[in-house]
Amino acid sequence: MEHSKPVLVVGATGFLGMEICRLLAASNKTVKALVRQSSDPEKVKALENLGIETVTGDIKDRRSLDQAYRDVEKVISTASSTLSKVTGDSIETVDHLGQLNVIDAAQKAGVKKFVFISFPESHVQFPLQDAKRSAEDALIKSGMDYTILRPTFFMEIWLGPYLGFDIRNRKATVYGHGVNKVSWISLKDVARFAVQSLDNDRTTNKILELGGPEALSPLDVIKLAENADGHSFELQYVPEEIINNQKNNSENPLEQSFSALMLTLAAGTEIDMVEVLKIMPVQLISVDEYIREVVSEQVEHAL
Q1: CB 150 within 8 A of CB 78
Q2: Which of 219, 161, 156, 163 is CA-nearest to residue 184?
């Protein structure tokens, strides 16, 4: 284990944060992981088994962060309320004010490099995007070296059962007409980009949009899944008008944000990765590879 100053991962027990921690540990980085009193004990144990020091704090409580930042030189922040089930977590308390606390604490602690996970600009206005942009603005003005990564739609989330892409039951929800192309990206690749950004001077003080190796429409993805599984899928189309009505009629910022993201997906989001890959060479995971892995795991589980 090298004896450089630690990298602090904020959001370490989330899907992306856990993968980032795994990669950092594998590259012999000294790592601290910010966890809460309420964090899943199994996830905390998994981090500690990687040789990572876990430190207790909550980004909603600014004073609790100072101890976590002691001796920290670099930070990766992935924290978000979007999949949280913790009481008190919200877009305002976590994605907005919480991230502002994380940035303020980093600045006060003399952190040299801050990597922040955001997402590309949407044509729709919604609370989660407002929170991300507010944090980005604070980070840019902080005086710290930064890299802002804006990955598009994660395969593992948006091509998973949680949001209606259910390979196991051969069902798929299609937002809009399903014909506009999206540069789906694997969270494993986002983790690789985040880790590479820490020590890559060519990423300093840049906003980098991230996508996968190809842009595919949702209907293209469904065909890949049908080919891999050998069966047709039952499709449920949700018109953009209905999604827009859901967004406008909801008073819940999280519901508004997910509706807006569905509208963004329906409109399509294509990312040209040529220049980014010159700066950070990553062998990107394709949608076909991801789907075949999911299908293979299901076959093995059924045996």
Answers
A1: no
A2: 156
